[in-house]
DNA sequence: CTCACTCCCGTAAACGTTTACGGGAGTCGC
DNA sequence: GCGACTCCCGTAAACGTTTACGGGAGTGAG
């Protein structure tokens, strides 16, 4: 815990000025002998440059923040897992913020960008970019990349999933299997994913020529227990032959209830999850699930941010990641 | 992206010196009118103090690093999830490092502590604290808390799981159910968890009066596919009536293989996982699993570090977290 | 010998804070 | 009317770097 050596210490020991020390350590042209003396002194003292002082001078912290709702959610884990190596390879550290989906927390993170403890930010606002975000976003003192949608014309880089296409994939798959009474177990409608899945669901039904039946739709939350409750409520008043769940946790909850009710999956009810997490393959029967590309979204966001940090003033970019459908036993029978 | 205002800007606008600005902003006693002028100027300019400059002066970054092998691993996710709020409540940020279990990466993290970009470090070395860690650990320029074991007498705070007790819990449970040919599907023996589980297994067998049969032990890696391979190898040469798996992923792999072989769980083979992750309840049958308290270990580690950051020179503490056994369908039949 | 030029390197300023120190103005008591 | 004391506040140094600037020493040409 002792105070480490500084360039001043090295300068004294090597008998040169601190400017020379700095030059040597940064590889600027210097006389051979000076280089040797400085290097020797630095080695003997075990010198490590102070990142804080360097940051103050250079205005670069080589840190990037990632703010998301909950690091326990597999979607965000997948993102972090991809973001981290990209940043690391470019010499950046990752600062993690969990906001619990609290809008004030999110705003706080944006406001704190002014402290300049990071060079940039990747943020995934659970309840979307509200008016309150907008001013902070457009005037942010550091580059920001938003994962999720952003109002038209907001000047930030943006990576989005295509919920609509994902829901359509699922419904077409179920329709192709002959299912006609396809229910939806959704999360809260005031969240970005919840709202997106709701409208995508009605649209996809329409384009398949299926009627919209409100009895087949139930709203809960993005967790297993809430998913189970929602499933129970829905089953009490309707007989779906398929259920689309807004994420894999909800699907697990639904699976619990279906099992209790002695409804066979997929014979009686076909089940589709979303996000295609490892829970989908842990479940039994394994879960057909719509992958919304969390990993890829994370990676792309990190790349966008690094680009922005390097060149700076290009036009904001919007990247849309295509969904994929992983077909498994919960719709097609064979594990 | 404009350069933000500094205390100099504020001082100019308020017509006072930078010292007064600093005093006001830090709540030091100041004349009423000065306070008003400074506050007004700061508000109008939207001033946010520069964290880097502050750190340089105060020698405090209010950042803490957590280094672990892989953020995809549910064990570490559980830790991060607990560490984050503890740190946040105390005003610290979390810097995340994934080392991929690479010892050189771990050493690098330790070495970089000299850059003083964090005030402290929580590290969970996958392959244990080797001699090479020791010098760096004892001479670390910032407090370090190790999650996992540490050689006797190493002067660092330390939080450990009780693998031995966990394995004993599992074996006693299986023994109580009448199982006598209890196999072990382990991870690599040169990792801390792998080694601990191996010796704990032989010890527990001995204390139960069961013979040790090398045919019932197989080593793979801590992933599902490797777990499946190991299970297959073991089943080719032995007929266990129970399998203890070194983590839940391995157990899932084993479950896949048992299903293929048409062996019933738990009737033919009882199955126990470790770490008690959410995968255990996602699986079917649900998995009995030994919880090693990842969440609690994370929380305790964060608390130890904060204590150390506050008072400093107390004697190093060792905290051991007790294991728990979550009994589920894979050993007791009813889901 | 002097001038021009090159090559190194040291002095000092700067990044944005915090804080020790001392000075000026005011009050009070004698 | 002056010393002692208090209350504010400004000047300047410091944290550990990077870097602009300029000076000294050496070389070569004229």
Would you kindly provide a written description of the structure presented here, covering whatever features stand out?
The structure is a homodimer of 335-residue chains. With 335 residues, chain A is α/β, with parallel strands linked by helices. Chain A folds into three domains: 7-49, lambda repressor-like DNA-binding domains (434 Repressor (Amino-terminal Domain)); 59-161 and 294-320, Rossmann fold, CATH 3.40.50; 163-291, Response regulator (Rossmann fold). Helices cover 47% and strands 16% of the residues of chain A. Chain A is built from 14 helices and twelve strands. Chain A has helices spanning 7-14, 18-25, 32-45, 51-58, 74-89, 103-112, 131-138, 163-176, 192-208, 224-237, 248-260, 278-282, 294-310, 329-332; strands at residues 63-68, 93-98, 120-123, 144-147, 157-161, 182-186, 217-219, 242-245, 270-274, 288-291, 318-321, 324-326. In chain A, strands 2-1-3-4-5-11 form a six-stranded parallel beta sheet, sandwiched between helices. The longest helix of chain A has 17 residues, at 192-208. In chain A, 50% of the residues are buried. β2 of chain A pairs antiparallel with β2 of chain B. The structure holds a DNA duplex (30 and 30 nucleotides).
